[in-house]
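The records we work with from here on pair a chain with its fold. Each token is a code from a learned vocabulary of local backbone shapes. A record is reproduced here so that you can trace the correspondence yourselves:

_____
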Amino acid sequence: MSFAHQDRPVPVAESERRKPLDYSNFGVVRGLIRTRLYSTESVGVDVVRRVVAPGLVQRVVIDRGDAVLAVTYDLLRHWSIDEFQLFLLAERNVRAEGGVLLHRADFDLPLAAGLPPLTLLAGPEYLTAHARWLGDYPVTGPGGALLIMPSKQIMYAYPITGPEASTAVTVLAQLAIVSYADEAWPINPWVYWWRNGNLDLAATTRHDDEHLEVRPTGRFQRFVASLDGPPTRA
């Protein structure tokens, strides 16, 4: 079997010397299964993963406390569980741990004058997995929420309440670019859109020393344009 060492800079061999595990025994590792979101650029060939939105994949790992090992398809073949059930288990384990902290904050940018506050989400090691069930938290509006995940440690959410969301995308893109450059464990500097339990891409970003380019997706632009009419259920 094979597995990939991820995230924490502690050699797998060190954990193996102290307390070796039989990774092929699913009963041994069941309680250690976790999941989070990663950039598509970080994906290995044999790593168990699924695409959740453009630029984002969800992966499954075994968390030993001082080392994290990516679950591979080779390893999964030894277990009495299929891929779909494995993701359900990983999400259930992460949700059971809870620990997400919410902090309200105003945008500190001139362009953001008059916009509602955004929410910083932080706390647990597997924070980004909570993007999948953002509706569990008081951070969404009638149109869902805009979301950035510049690193595995932080997420920012902004409630979509009306056409001002088009301005919020640009403001969040600026914040995403800065956080992506400054934070540890970066994911990507794009802006996402949570609605009805699904994640989609709201805008891509490009940045150099001269300027920031924000490109909203056509789907998101059409949705924002529709917000001039009757409210849309999230």
About this structure: The first strand starts at residue 4 and ends at 6. The chain is about 25% helix and 30% strand. The first helix runs from residue 12 to 18. The chain has a mean pLDDT of 86.
